[in-house]
Amino acid sequence: MSPDTRDARRRAAGCISRGRPWNARTSPYLSLNPDIEAAIRADRAAGRAHPHRFDDANVVRRERNPHDDATLTRPAFARDIEKILNVPAYNRYADKTQVFSFVENDDICRRGLHVQLVSRVARGIGSLLGLNCELIEAIALGHDVGHTPFGHAGERYLSACYHARTGRYFNHNVHSVRVLDQLYRRNVSLQTLDGVLCHNGEFAQQVLRMGDTADFVALDRLVEACTADELAIKTLRPSTLEGCVVRVSDMIAYVGKDRADALDMGVIDSLDVFDSEVIGRDNARIINNLTVDLVNTSYGTDRIALSERAFADLKRAKRQNYELIYEREGMVNGAGNIVEEMFEELYERLLEDLLAGDEGSPVFKHHAASLAAKSRTVEIDEYLASDPNQVVVDYMASMTDSYFMALYAHLFPRSKKRIITRGYCSDLG
Q1: How far apart are CA 405 and CA 423, in angstroms?
Q2: What digits encode the pLDDT tens for the residues 189-205?
Q3: d(Cα 138, Cα 156) in Å, to the nearest integer?
Q4: Could you tell me the pTM of the whole model?
Q5: How far apart are CA 109 and CA 122, in angstroms?
Q6: What are residue 110's DSSP bridge partners?
Q7: Which helix or strand (DSSP H or E) is residue 260 part of?
């Protein structure tokens, strides 16, 4: 067989792309199984949906409000999308850490872009499987609205503050439900809130089967369980296939993108530091190959699954990301300790102000007053009379990175603790 013939066959198999020479460390772009592709095309031509596609007619809301009834112009889950897009917490995505906190850089991913990437990946998968793409989009856009400043590090620090005083735990997915369902009370559907609660992208599973959260009583029970028990979060299962798709798509969206950002930040020198047998090392391959594998494995079934080889490779990819990126991503050389200390100091100060009834404090002026003005149901006096630790948690979780730093500097002007960011012009001398 001539070299030209070998190359032609490799190209046909997807082993050569974008002009890069094929080698053992370059994974090909996978393609849909021809039989499955033909079946998808036939389904679309016939207007057939997935048998477990969630039907808009079965939407469940906490309040029976005629204004929220589905119409031709505003279907059930399109309403949820619009509700989520218009809560203040969605605006704040733009200045919340995805991975890299201490840098001014318009090219790296912030949480606002992350949720859009999750939505795009999940809608692509949902479309191929014949699922409800508007429900998928609602879950994806809302899944991180309860996230803290400074990403998962901030989540750990806030949970530690909360737990030390109450014995309870903070989880961003649980708080996302609280933001949409309690703080702003937008009457978001049970199906969207269930998907938000159960997205749990940090917990990889090869096969995701639907849970059985059938009503708000069950949802509220799960929220309370996750707040009271640190391990309960690992038992969550989305109750729709759409929620299962978003859960997997969360991982698909960040594994490769975080690597691209790490390259831009100089945390890694090359993607050659990663190993892969199936899904690839770069963002484009990871998204394509995991999407294709998931559809090939899940089409026509009642679960969302990856093949054993793809799942093993995904777990390897996540492990390598932790070792080479997340454990080095900026909270090093004492920076992490400083931020953790700042969380504790800010939490204690806001709690003291709240207990003292200091109406000049930002927990009153910037948080409680603003929340009462923008929420449908929150009454300021009633809210301030509730659990003070929960009020402080609500406030701190709502902060963007920049706001957190500005507020700390305002409240502790004599403190030497300051977060030093790498500025736009730091490399110019």
Answers
A1: 15
A2: 999 999 999 998 556 78
A3: 26
A4: 0.92
A5: 18
A6: 97
A7: helix 241-265
